[in-house]
Backbone:
């Protein structure tokens, strides 16, 4: 089994930015967008995340799988659910029936229960708002796996304030991946040579899970045995007695300062808009009401 | 055997956190790629036993980093992006079983299996519960959708995987734990 990071160097503006500045941007935009239900504000954030996404220059081929998953989640689970039930919305979305565009009443034969489904203009706009929120966050974070260099995670989070030991743990984890993937591949081949057919596990759910043990246990235990040598080697080199230095040095460029400044403005602006100006609540555009003849 | 301090985070914890995270990431990715059979619409996710086991064996911080970082690595390998609350939920799935570490001295005892499994179940409920509930304020869904659409499918399979595979890993670990001399 070949294992490789989705990351590759693309010479894009996004990848030229300091990774700390990018994390600050991503997190501040995420915390900002979840403040709003007004589709005008959500449109701004969706536009912002799309600009960020396209600047990352990802190809359809490499993101096709994740897009399929995201679109099913956003449209079917989030969108259709919000459209039919309106759950999660305000009273106007849940109860208001003045702007009904479609309605069905069905009595269940035998028990006599009445199922009343109705779609209102409010529910349509609410479903749109919910999908925009979810899509904005998904679009923001899809490029992470493709554009962040795994070798820079440790130093990035150290410089963002994480303790040395935790940051080193992150760094080490990314270095372990190729070795463990190789070990897993060897174990899989060895078990297959003994007649183990992972694709044809028979029995019920519990039996199938138990049959995964010959694959998971050897890889895990071998890794633990090997790790003791690493612990000893690090202890002998007095790991953890002094602050670490890192091979990669991160330096903020003016463009990083600009991105951090912009991120702070977006977050503070969003908090002020919600807390002081009390804007950004659920809003139904008159144009949509007119569109449906109200 | 000497009782472990649950809050300790020394060289051993640094290495095992990293190892656990890498293992969780690789096994999640690999078992996804193998297209394992599933019962009904429940997908097998056997790798979830890794953060639980690393928590039980090496303490809560190791369990937490294994789950949190391991999920990030699995997503980075598969290209799924970054889902902070689900990463945090996976971290809790390792953190909470980690509180059982100080209660377990014999990894072969039935009592140890029961303690490890109970804490693993609690970890799944809290971890997947937090991740599912987070969708209420992130995506704006309601409690019913969060429970039926997200929490139950994730938690049920994770619990079944955990209670079967964690004791198996504990027995295997018991065979090597004496060798470490710690």
Residues:
């Amino acid at each position: 089994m070949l294992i490789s990071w989705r990351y590759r160097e693309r010479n894009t503006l996004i990848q030229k930015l300091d990774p700390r500045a990018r994390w600050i941007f991503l997190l501040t935009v995420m915390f900002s967008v979840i403040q709003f239900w007004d589709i005008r504000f959500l449109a701004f954030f969706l536009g912002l995340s799309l600009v960020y996404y396209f600047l990352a220059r990802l190809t359809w081929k490499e993101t096709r799988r994740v897009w399929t998953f995201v679109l099913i989640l956003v449209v079917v689970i989030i969108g259709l659910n919000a459209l039919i039930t309106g759950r999660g919305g305000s009273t106007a979305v849940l109860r208001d029936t003045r702007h009904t565009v479609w309605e069905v009443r069905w009595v269940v034969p035998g028990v006599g229960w009445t199922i009343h489904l109705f779609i209102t203009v409010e529910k349509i706009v609410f479903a749109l708002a919910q999908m925009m929120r979810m899509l904005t966050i998904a679009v923001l974070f899809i490029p992470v796996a493709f554009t962040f260099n795994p070798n820079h995670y440790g130093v990035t989070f150290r410089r963002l304030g994480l303790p040395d030991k935790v940051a080193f743990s992150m760094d080490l984890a990314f270095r372990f991946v190729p070795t463990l993937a190789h070990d897993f591949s060897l174990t899989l081949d060895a078990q297959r040579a003994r007649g183990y057919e992972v694709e044809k596990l028979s029995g019920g759910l519990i039996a199938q899970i138990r049959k995964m043990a010959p694959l998971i246990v050897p890889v895990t235990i071998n890794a633990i045995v090997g790790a003791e040598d690493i612990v000893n080697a690090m202890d002998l080199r007095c790991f953890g007695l002094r602050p670490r230095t890192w091979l990669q040095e991160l330096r903020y460029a003016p463009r990083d300062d600009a991105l951090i400044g912009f991120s702070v403005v977006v977050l503070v602006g969003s908090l002020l808009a919600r807390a002081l100006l009390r804007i950004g609540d659920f809003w139904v555009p008159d144009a949509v009401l007119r569109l449906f003849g109200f | 055997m000497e009782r472990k301090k649950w809050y300790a985070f020394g060289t051993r914890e640094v290495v095992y956190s990293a190892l656990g995270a890498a293992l969780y990431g690789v096994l999640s990715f690999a078992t996804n790629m193998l297209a394992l059979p599933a019962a009904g619409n429940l997908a097998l996710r056997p790798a979830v036993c890794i953060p639980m086991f690393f928590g039980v064996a090496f303490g809560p911080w190791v369990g937490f980093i294994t789950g949190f970082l391991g999920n990030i690595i699995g997503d980075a390998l598969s290209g799924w992006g970054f889902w902070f609350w689900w990463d945090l939920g996976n971290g809790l799935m390792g953190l909470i079983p980690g509180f059982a570490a100080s209660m377990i001295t014999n990894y072969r005892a039935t009592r140890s299996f029961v303690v490890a499994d109970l804490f693993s179940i609690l970890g799944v409920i809290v971890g997947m519960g937090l991740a599912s509930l987070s969708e209420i304020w992130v995506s704006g869904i309601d409690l019913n959708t969060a429970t039926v659409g997200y929490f139950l499918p994730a938690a049920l399979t994770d619990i079944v995987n955990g209670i079967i595979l964690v004791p198996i890993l504990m027995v295997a670990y018991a065979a090597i734990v004496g060798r470490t001399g710690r």
Strands of chain A lie at 100-107, 114-120.
